[in-house]
Amino acid sequence: MKFTASQIAGILEGEVHGNPEISVHKLAKIEEGVEGSLTFLANPKYTHYIYSTEASITIVNKDFKPEQEITTTLIKVEDAYKSFSKLLEFYNNVKNNKVGIEKPVFLSESASYGEDFYLGAFSYLGNNVRIGNNVKIYPNVYLGDNVTIGNNVVIYSGAKIYSESVIGNGCMIHSAVIIGADGFGFTPNREGEYSKVPQTGNVIVEDNVEIGAGTTIDRATLGSTILRKGVKLDNQIQIAHNVEIGEHTVIAAQTGIAGSTKIGKNCLIGGQVGIVGHITIGDRVKIQAQSGIIRNVKDDEVLQGSPALNYADFNKSYVHFKNLTRLVGRIADLEKNNGD
Fold first, then answer.
1. DSSP code per residue over 226-256
2. Region 28-44: what's the mean pLDDT?
Protein backbone atom coordinates (compact mmCIF):
# COMPACT_ATOMS: atom_id res chain seq x y z
CA MET A 1 0.00 0.00 0.00
CA LYS A 2 1.22 3.45 -0.93
CA PHE A 3 0.20 6.77 0.61
CA THR A 4 1.19 10.29 -0.41
CA ALA A 5 2.20 13.03 1.99
CA SER A 6 -1.05 14.88 1.30
CA GLN A 7 -3.12 11.75 2.07
CA ILE A 8 -1.26 11.19 5.34
CA ALA A 9 -1.63 14.84 6.30
CA GLY A 10 -5.37 14.53 5.71
CA ILE A 11 -5.58 11.52 8.05
CA LEU A 12 -3.58 13.30 10.75
CA GLU A 13 -4.97 16.83 10.20
CA GLY A 14 -1.40 17.94 9.60
CA GLU A 15 0.42 20.40 7.35
CA VAL A 16 2.83 19.35 4.58
CA HIS A 17 6.18 21.11 4.26
CA GLY A 18 7.81 19.77 1.13
CA ASN A 19 6.53 17.61 -1.70
CA PRO A 20 2.84 16.77 -1.12
CA GLU A 21 2.88 14.06 -3.80
CA ILE A 22 5.85 12.08 -2.51
CA SER A 23 4.70 8.58 -1.52
CA VAL A 24 5.69 5.99 1.07
CA HIS A 25 5.00 2.28 1.36
CA LYS A 26 6.66 1.29 4.64
CA LEU A 27 7.52 2.54 8.14
CA ALA A 28 10.96 3.02 9.67
CA LYS A 29 12.81 4.39 12.68
CA ILE A 30 14.26 7.81 11.91
CA GLU A 31 17.86 6.58 12.13
CA GLU A 32 17.06 3.74 9.70
CA GLY A 33 14.88 5.69 7.24
CA VAL A 34 15.29 4.92 3.55
CA GLU A 35 13.61 6.17 0.39
CA GLY A 36 9.92 5.24 0.36
CA SER A 37 9.65 5.07 4.15
CA LEU A 38 7.71 7.13 6.70
CA THR A 39 9.14 8.00 10.11
CA PHE A 40 8.55 10.46 12.97
CA LEU A 41 10.49 12.70 15.34
CA ALA A 42 9.12 13.14 18.87
CA ASN A 43 12.10 12.74 21.20
CA PRO A 44 14.50 15.72 21.01
CA LYS A 45 17.55 13.49 21.47
CA TYR A 46 16.91 12.05 17.99
CA THR A 47 16.73 15.47 16.32
CA HIS A 48 20.16 15.13 14.70
CA TYR A 49 18.91 12.17 12.67
CA ILE A 50 16.42 14.33 10.76
CA TYR A 51 19.31 15.95 8.89
CA SER A 52 20.67 12.60 7.68
CA THR A 53 17.60 10.41 7.40
CA GLU A 54 16.71 9.17 3.93
CA ALA A 55 13.05 8.68 4.87
CA SER A 56 10.74 10.24 2.30
CA ILE A 57 8.33 11.65 4.92
CA THR A 58 8.85 12.57 8.58
CA ILE A 59 6.10 13.50 11.05
CA VAL A 60 7.19 16.29 13.42
CA ASN A 61 5.66 18.61 16.00
CA LYS A 62 4.30 21.93 14.74
CA ASP A 63 6.98 23.91 16.55
CA PHE A 64 9.87 22.08 14.87
CA LYS A 65 12.14 24.39 12.86
CA PRO A 66 15.07 22.79 11.01
CA GLU A 67 18.44 24.39 11.67
CA GLN A 68 20.08 22.74 8.65
CA GLU A 69 19.03 21.64 5.19
CA ILE A 70 16.79 18.57 5.12
CA THR A 71 15.69 16.32 2.27
CA THR A 72 12.71 14.63 3.94
CA THR A 73 9.21 16.03 3.48
CA LEU A 74 7.74 17.12 6.81
CA ILE A 75 4.19 16.70 8.06
CA LYS A 76 3.69 19.03 11.02
CA VAL A 77 1.13 18.00 13.65
CA GLU A 78 0.20 18.92 17.24
CA ASP A 79 1.81 15.79 18.73
CA ALA A 80 4.13 13.70 16.53
CA TYR A 81 4.09 10.64 18.79
CA LYS A 82 0.30 10.49 19.09
CA SER A 83 -0.11 11.13 15.38
CA PHE A 84 2.30 8.33 14.47
CA SER A 85 0.41 5.99 16.79
CA LYS A 86 -2.84 7.02 15.12
CA LEU A 87 -1.28 6.30 11.74
CA LEU A 88 -0.12 2.86 12.89
CA GLU A 89 -3.67 2.09 13.99
CA PHE A 90 -5.02 3.27 10.63
CA TYR A 91 -2.42 1.17 8.79
CA ASN A 92 -3.29 -1.95 10.79
CA ASN A 93 -7.00 -1.44 10.18
CA VAL A 94 -6.42 -1.20 6.43
CA LYS A 95 -4.00 -4.14 6.38
CA ASN A 96 -6.24 -6.40 8.47
CA ASN A 97 -9.54 -5.47 6.85
CA LYS A 98 -10.31 -8.98 5.66
CA VAL A 99 -13.84 -10.21 5.07
CA GLY A 100 -15.36 -13.53 4.09
CA ILE A 101 -15.16 -17.14 5.20
CA GLU A 102 -12.20 -19.20 4.07
CA LYS A 103 -12.35 -22.97 3.56
CA PRO A 104 -12.16 -25.41 5.20
CA VAL A 105 -13.87 -24.35 8.43
CA PHE A 106 -16.55 -25.82 10.69
CA LEU A 107 -19.36 -23.36 11.24
CA SER A 108 -22.34 -24.74 13.17
CA GLU A 109 -25.72 -24.16 11.57
CA SER A 110 -26.90 -22.53 14.80
CA ALA A 111 -23.98 -20.06 14.89
CA SER A 112 -24.59 -16.48 13.76
CA TYR A 113 -22.37 -13.54 12.82
CA GLY A 114 -22.74 -9.90 11.81
CA GLU A 115 -21.50 -7.71 8.96
CA ASP A 116 -17.90 -7.49 7.71
CA PHE A 117 -17.05 -10.86 9.25
CA TYR A 118 -13.78 -12.69 8.53
CA LEU A 119 -13.21 -16.33 9.48
CA GLY A 120 -9.84 -17.89 8.71
CA ALA A 121 -9.29 -21.43 7.48
CA PHE A 122 -9.37 -24.43 9.86
CA SER A 123 -11.38 -22.57 12.49
CA TYR A 124 -14.21 -24.16 14.50
CA LEU A 125 -17.35 -22.36 15.65
CA GLY A 126 -19.64 -24.44 17.86
CA ASN A 127 -23.36 -24.47 18.51
CA ASN A 128 -25.14 -21.19 19.29
CA VAL A 129 -22.03 -19.06 18.90
CA ARG A 130 -23.05 -15.39 18.58
CA ILE A 131 -20.68 -12.97 16.83
CA GLY A 132 -21.16 -9.23 16.29
CA ASN A 133 -20.15 -6.90 13.46
CA ASN A 134 -16.64 -6.35 12.10
CA VAL A 135 -15.12 -9.36 13.85
CA LYS A 136 -11.90 -10.85 12.46
CA ILE A 137 -11.10 -14.43 13.41
CA TYR A 138 -7.80 -15.72 12.05
CA PRO A 139 -7.02 -19.36 11.12
CA ASN A 140 -7.06 -22.23 13.61
CA VAL A 141 -9.29 -20.53 16.19
CA TYR A 142 -11.69 -22.59 18.33
CA LEU A 143 -14.93 -21.14 19.72
CA GLY A 144 -16.90 -23.56 21.90
CA ASP A 145 -20.67 -23.82 22.22
CA ASN A 146 -22.60 -20.75 23.39
CA VAL A 147 -19.65 -18.36 23.11
CA THR A 148 -20.64 -14.72 22.60
CA ILE A 149 -18.35 -12.24 20.80
CA GLY A 150 -19.14 -8.50 20.59
CA ASN A 151 -18.43 -5.99 17.81
CA ASN A 152 -15.00 -4.97 16.48
CA VAL A 153 -13.13 -7.92 17.97
CA VAL A 154 -9.90 -9.43 16.62
CA ILE A 155 -8.95 -13.02 17.53
CA TYR A 156 -5.55 -14.14 16.25
CA SER A 157 -4.51 -17.60 15.09
CA GLY A 158 -4.56 -20.48 17.51
CA ALA A 159 -6.69 -18.90 20.24
CA LYS A 160 -9.10 -21.24 22.05
CA ILE A 161 -12.25 -19.90 23.70
CA TYR A 162 -14.17 -22.54 25.64
CA SER A 163 -17.94 -22.82 25.91
CA GLU A 164 -20.10 -20.17 27.60
CA SER A 165 -17.37 -17.48 27.48
CA VAL A 166 -18.44 -13.88 26.81
CA ILE A 167 -16.17 -11.43 24.97
CA GLY A 168 -17.15 -7.74 24.83
CA ASN A 169 -16.74 -5.08 22.15
CA GLY A 170 -13.39 -3.83 20.89
CA CYS A 171 -11.31 -6.67 22.34
CA MET A 172 -8.07 -8.08 20.92
CA ILE A 173 -7.10 -11.67 21.71
CA HIS A 174 -3.65 -12.76 20.58
CA SER A 175 -2.36 -16.14 19.43
CA ALA A 176 -2.42 -19.16 21.76
CA VAL A 177 -4.66 -17.47 24.33
CA ILE A 178 -6.91 -19.93 26.16
CA ILE A 179 -10.07 -18.54 27.73
CA GLY A 180 -12.38 -20.73 29.80
CA ALA A 181 -10.24 -23.78 30.58
CA ASP A 182 -11.12 -25.50 33.86
CA GLY A 183 -10.03 -23.88 37.07
CA PHE A 184 -7.51 -25.82 39.19
CA GLY A 185 -9.95 -27.42 41.60
CA PHE A 186 -9.41 -30.78 43.30
CA THR A 187 -10.34 -32.33 46.66
CA PRO A 188 -8.21 -34.99 48.44
CA ASN A 189 -9.66 -38.20 49.82
CA ARG A 190 -8.44 -40.43 52.65
CA GLU A 191 -6.19 -42.40 50.31
CA GLY A 192 -4.34 -39.24 49.26
CA GLU A 193 -5.90 -39.20 45.83
CA TYR A 194 -7.53 -36.14 44.32
CA SER A 195 -11.01 -35.85 42.85
CA LYS A 196 -11.80 -33.12 40.34
CA VAL A 197 -14.25 -30.42 41.34
CA PRO A 198 -16.47 -29.64 38.33
CA GLN A 199 -15.88 -26.13 36.97
CA THR A 200 -19.33 -24.98 35.92
CA GLY A 201 -18.87 -21.20 35.61
CA ASN A 202 -17.57 -19.12 32.72
CA VAL A 203 -15.28 -16.22 31.78
CA ILE A 204 -16.55 -12.71 31.06
CA VAL A 205 -14.26 -10.27 29.24
CA GLU A 206 -15.72 -6.76 29.09
CA ASP A 207 -15.15 -4.10 26.41
CA ASN A 208 -11.75 -2.93 25.10
CA VAL A 209 -9.67 -5.63 26.76
CA GLU A 210 -6.42 -6.84 25.16
CA ILE A 211 -5.04 -10.28 26.06
CA GLY A 212 -1.44 -11.12 25.13
CA ALA A 213 -0.16 -14.28 23.46
CA GLY A 214 -0.07 -17.47 25.51
CA THR A 215 -2.16 -16.08 28.38
CA THR A 216 -4.64 -18.42 30.08
CA ILE A 217 -7.82 -17.40 31.87
CA ASP A 218 -9.67 -20.15 33.76
CA ARG A 219 -13.42 -20.47 34.01
CA ALA A 220 -15.02 -20.05 37.43
CA THR A 221 -15.99 -22.96 39.63
CA LEU A 222 -19.33 -21.18 40.11
CA GLY A 223 -20.22 -17.77 38.71
CA SER A 224 -17.67 -15.96 36.51
CA THR A 225 -14.01 -15.08 36.17
CA ILE A 226 -14.21 -11.40 35.11
CA LEU A 227 -11.91 -8.98 33.30
CA ARG A 228 -13.48 -5.54 33.53
CA LYS A 229 -13.38 -3.01 30.72
CA GLY A 230 -10.04 -1.67 29.53
CA VAL A 231 -7.87 -4.35 31.16
CA LYS A 232 -4.57 -4.95 29.35
CA LEU A 233 -2.75 -8.26 29.82
CA ASP A 234 0.75 -9.00 28.54
CA ASN A 235 1.92 -12.39 27.22
CA GLN A 236 2.02 -15.59 29.28
CA ILE A 237 -0.12 -14.60 32.24
CA GLN A 238 -2.14 -17.07 34.34
CA ILE A 239 -5.53 -15.91 35.67
CA ALA A 240 -7.12 -18.55 37.90
CA HIS A 241 -10.79 -19.38 38.52
CA ASN A 242 -13.10 -16.72 39.98
CA VAL A 243 -10.49 -13.96 39.78
CA GLU A 244 -11.85 -10.48 39.09
CA ILE A 245 -9.63 -7.75 37.59
CA GLY A 246 -10.87 -4.17 37.79
CA GLU A 247 -11.19 -1.58 35.04
CA HIS A 248 -8.05 -0.38 33.23
CA THR A 249 -5.65 -2.51 35.25
CA VAL A 250 -2.44 -3.39 33.38
CA ILE A 251 -0.48 -6.59 34.07
CA ALA A 252 2.96 -7.51 32.66
CA ALA A 253 4.20 -10.90 31.47
CA GLN A 254 4.51 -14.11 33.49
CA THR A 255 2.36 -12.91 36.37
CA GLY A 256 0.23 -15.53 38.11
CA ILE A 257 -2.95 -14.79 40.06
CA ALA A 258 -4.46 -17.55 42.21
CA GLY A 259 -8.16 -18.29 42.55
CA SER A 260 -10.84 -15.93 43.87
CA THR A 261 -8.54 -12.91 44.24
CA LYS A 262 -10.09 -9.52 43.49
CA ILE A 263 -7.93 -6.79 41.94
CA GLY A 264 -9.12 -3.19 41.79
CA LYS A 265 -9.16 -0.46 39.15
CA ASN A 266 -6.19 1.24 37.50
CA CYS A 267 -3.56 -1.03 39.04
CA LEU A 268 -0.09 -1.51 37.53
CA ILE A 269 1.38 -4.98 38.09
CA GLY A 270 4.92 -5.78 36.93
CA GLY A 271 6.29 -8.95 35.36
CA GLN A 272 6.64 -12.26 37.22
CA VAL A 273 4.48 -11.14 40.13
CA GLY A 274 2.87 -13.93 42.15
CA ILE A 275 -0.45 -13.23 43.91
CA VAL A 276 -2.03 -15.73 46.32
CA GLY A 277 -5.70 -16.63 46.25
CA HIS A 278 -8.67 -15.26 48.19
CA ILE A 279 -7.25 -11.77 48.82
CA THR A 280 -8.36 -8.29 47.78
CA ILE A 281 -6.11 -5.72 46.12
CA GLY A 282 -7.38 -2.14 46.11
CA ASP A 283 -7.51 0.51 43.40
CA ARG A 284 -4.47 2.24 41.88
CA VAL A 285 -2.05 -0.23 43.47
CA LYS A 286 1.45 -0.53 41.97
CA ILE A 287 3.36 -3.80 42.33
CA GLN A 288 6.99 -3.99 41.23
CA ALA A 289 8.30 -6.93 39.15
CA GLN A 290 8.94 -10.30 40.83
CA SER A 291 7.04 -9.38 43.97
CA GLY A 292 5.05 -11.90 45.98
CA ILE A 293 1.69 -10.71 47.33
CA ILE A 294 0.36 -12.74 50.28
CA ARG A 295 -2.03 -10.27 51.98
CA ASN A 296 -4.83 -7.84 51.25
CA VAL A 297 -3.58 -4.57 49.76
CA LYS A 298 -5.14 -1.15 50.40
CA ASP A 299 -5.83 1.49 47.75
CA ASP A 300 -2.78 3.35 46.39
CA GLU A 301 -0.14 1.10 47.99
CA VAL A 302 3.17 0.61 46.16
CA LEU A 303 4.81 -2.76 46.87
CA GLN A 304 8.07 -4.56 46.16
CA GLY A 305 9.77 -7.77 47.31
CA SER A 306 8.74 -11.29 48.20
CA PRO A 307 6.88 -11.29 50.50
CA ALA A 308 6.13 -7.77 49.35
CA LEU A 309 6.80 -4.72 51.51
CA ASN A 310 5.80 -1.12 51.12
CA TYR A 311 8.05 0.22 48.34
CA ALA A 312 9.76 2.82 50.57
CA ASP A 313 10.31 0.27 53.36
CA PHE A 314 11.76 -2.20 50.87
CA ASN A 315 14.30 0.34 49.62
CA LYS A 316 15.35 1.20 53.19
CA SER A 317 15.69 -2.50 54.03
CA TYR A 318 17.64 -3.19 50.87
CA VAL A 319 20.43 -0.90 52.12
CA HIS A 320 20.87 -3.38 54.96
CA PHE A 321 20.40 -6.47 52.77
CA LYS A 322 23.29 -5.59 50.49
CA ASN A 323 25.56 -4.81 53.47
CA LEU A 324 24.64 -7.98 55.35
CA THR A 325 27.93 -9.82 54.69
CA ARG A 326 29.97 -6.85 55.92
CA LEU A 327 27.78 -6.48 59.02
CA VAL A 328 28.14 -10.17 59.87
CA GLY A 329 31.91 -9.80 59.54
CA ARG A 330 31.90 -6.82 61.91
CA ILE A 331 29.88 -8.77 64.47
CA ALA A 332 32.31 -11.71 64.21
CA ASP A 333 35.26 -9.35 64.79
CA LEU A 334 33.59 -7.78 67.84
CA GLU A 335 32.87 -11.20 69.35
CA LYS A 336 36.46 -12.29 68.70
CA ASN A 337 37.87 -9.13 70.31
CA ASN A 338 35.60 -9.59 73.32
CA GLY A 339 36.75 -13.16 73.69
CA ASP A 340 33.36 -14.71 72.98
1. EE-TT-EE-SS-EE-TT-EE-TT-EE-TT-E
2. 94
